[in-house]
Amino acid sequence: MLRRFLAVLFLVVAGLVVAPSGPAWACSCGVPQRTGDLVVVGVAERVSKPWTGDDLRVRIRVESVEQGSAGTRVDLITAVDSAACGYGFSEGHRYRVYANEGSTSLCDGNEDLGLIEQPAAGPPWALWWALGSGAVLVAALILFGRRGHGRR
User: Fold this and answer.
1) What's the number of domains the chain is made of?
2) How would you write the pLDDT of the chain (152 residues) with one tens digit per residue?
């Protein structure tokens, strides 16, 4: 009788160890809230992921404040991973951000308004091409004009 009890006990314990685990819970928000004590529209200037920890730090250059009060820049925290309800910010993108007490999440209803256009670092290539072509043309006219003067 003791053997049967130990055999059943062994099978139960072995079944607990070998049994597959349940599914991992991901972020489940339902309908985004679109509320916060601070609502701003601005550009993500810096997105930094720390070496350790689960927080992502985001610096937003504020263009307009729709609710609350903010300076020219706002620093926010969100989770690194969207499975932990973190919002994926990208540098250079404009966002409408809903924040509560300095943090935001995937469930807050943030909106990516698109990549901002970066001003060109210098004149466009067509301008350089036109200036170069004009310089070559002027140099050619000067050289051919001098040759023609020497033959007369």
Assistant:
1) 1
2) 666 655 555 655 555 554 444 445 568 888 778 888 999 999 999 999 877 777 899 999 999 999 999 999 999 999 988 888 999 999 999 999 999 999 999 999 999 999 887 665 666 667 777 787 888 888 778 887 776 665 55
What CATH number does the domain containing 43 carry?
Answer: 2.40.50.120
Q: Is 133 within the bounds of a domain?
A: no
How far, in Å, CA of 2 to CA of 8, rounded? 10
Strands (E), the chain: 38-48, 55-67, 73-79, 93-99, 111-115
What contacts 41, CB < 8 A, 6 or more positions away? Answer: 62, 63, 64, 66, 94, 95, 96, 97, 113
